[in-house]
Design brief:
The chain is of the alpha/beta class and 698 residues long. Among the domains are: 209 residues, Rossmann fold, CATH 3.40.50; 154 residues, 3-Layer(aba) Sandwich (Rossmann fold), CATH 3.40.50.261; 72 residues, ATP-grasp fold, A domain (Dna Ligase, domain 1), CATH 3.30.1490. It is 38% helix and 20% strand. The protein contains 24 helices and 30 strands. The protein has a seven-stranded mixed beta sheet with strand order 9-8-11-10-12-13-14, with helices on both faces. Strands 21, 25, 26, 27, 28, 29 and 30 form a seven-stranded mixed beta sheet that branches. Helix 17 runs antiparallel to helix 18. The radius of gyration is 31 Å and the shape is flat.
Length: 698
Amino acid sequence: MSDPRVRLLFEPNSLAVVGASSDPSKASGLPLRNVINSKFTGKIYPVNPRALEIGGLKCYPSVSELPEAPDVAILMVDAKLSPQVLEECGKKGVKTAIIGSAGFSESGAEGAQRQAQLSDIAKQYDIRVCGPNCHGTFNVLKGIPCGYDHSFALPLTPGPVAIASHSGALLGVLGHRAVQANQGLSYLVSNGNEMDLDLCDFTEFFLEDASTQVVALLMEGLKDGPRFLQLAERAHELGKKIVVLKVGKSERGAITTLAHTARMAGVGEVYEAAFRQYGVISTDTVETFLGSAQMAAHQPVPRGGRILVMTSSGAGASLMADKATEYGLDLADISEEAKSCIPQRRTAILTNPFDTAGASRSQGFLSNVCEAFARDTANDCLLMYLGPLAVRHEYARNFAAASAKFGKPAAAINCLSEADVRDIFQAEHIPVFDGATDACFKMLRAYIDYGRFLAGRRKAQRVEHSSNLPPANVAAILKAHDGASMLSHSTTMELLAAYGFRCVDFDLVSSRDEAMAVVSKIGYPVIMKGIVPDVAHRSDIGLVSRKVSSDAELQREYEALAERARAVSQENPVINVERYVPHDFEIILGVKYDATFGPVILCGLGGIFTEVLKDYALRLAPLTMADAEEMLSSLKAFGALKKSRKGTAHITSLIDGIVRLADLAIDLRGKIAAVDVNPIGLNLGSPVMTVLDAKVHV
């Protein structure tokens, strides 16, 4: 349950603006102006030692001289004065504060030190703080603004969507766009540096609020990834939705030089994996973000991924078909029942996308077409691409009415950006994009993916992990680590074998005669690899041989490998001689430890070209078998993997391996840094998959 004081930030009975100004052109003048012009009926206390009254209200010289402790103190003073003022608030008994000033952790070391001082004061006096460096809060439902964001003065419509934003400037943009889109909002908050209350605190409050159905988050990052995922689960339990616009996706994790997995699983990719795995609707533009929030608030969740597109031109129909293909959306077939509802002379060109040009003036035609498609169970979602058509207003009205009548999810693209056409769609809460074709298709893709997530969601799917491997066994294996940046090859293979992986037969040798002795035991063909400490990718520097099938080849390849190994390490080379295992596919499995979400599992096409192919998926541990199956099915190569006349035993085996690696990742958190199991040899129809090489970074 959320801290009840969070609600005070949105529903105070009294508030003080400390550092209030009579000049509304200044940031310090906006909070008072906003609240005076609002529906707020509580007590308002301006605080400024240089004024007797502001805006017709008595002004107090300090917080200590207020007649009571206000529910909320809005601090609009210089950053250097903020600690002193917050302490004064604490002594007065103030329990919540909004600190709008900048000049804290976002501004460098001195600011960070000042923010730490603020944090200590807040903890000492048990004050819950929004900010610093934030624009404040706005209760749209009750018309109570507590801050200086320009959007707080806009004629926002009350509704079911709450927005929290790390960025104050973008919150203002979202507020203006919401007015243009007639999007109803419940709450707005700009939480800035999150010294105390963070995005999760506000998300929890919004989820518990009966008036809020959609939580829309513009986030730069998360302080507590696991808590956010718990809140995502809670949202599903409550029948509510979370929509996210994550900015700053181009950052890279600390480990970027050695492990394939760490290189591929960047910060943005991990966030996207978390959102997908936990049913959070992810967007990448402001337009898609607001459209998704509106769709999530007012449109039914699609039952599947089949869309029916209605256009007003042939070229528009072609463009829509191209975009549907680009975004992986299926164009629905038109059922015979729907065709029977449309005049016979039009049935010859009944295709999807459907172009109404030429027949749109027929009496009742538009109504018949829109209702037939909205009623048709052969499609799951409707899209209108409306251009310069003489009867476009009638077309829009029929489309909006039919989708509402039959409860069919719908969206629209308003090619001419006409306000009156936009109003028709918005009256039925249909997301409408003024010519923004890609933004609309991204929104549909995200909402359809959300529907698929709900369809496959299992109750109690997230279970606490418990390892089947005795901790002593893990400790004994890791004890062999000699201080290098990677576990030795032998230790790595032993560790994977302990978790149930089948590893290729191998032996380490230091002479050609020893290599010949190994071959006499395991037989030809073999592969040889030069083992050099702290070299992650042996093939890049010629330390992997070709397939060796004879004594002569072995002697030749051994000497060449040994010479290259000596050139790298200046030591007597160690050569790995391993059985050659024929296989149909090479797979990579990997582990990375993310600072926000913890262990991340990677699965994709492996081998030396894994980073070139870039066909991989990420998920967070722990994993269920269903998680692993969904992860695998998201690969572009999955079609080739599953189309086997020999059966699907290889897929079952790979799913099991993904879950086993997730178990390892949880067990060894804090003991290792990353894992690359690459490649794994996979044969179609065979339950046996073989680890051919692996590295564990420590």
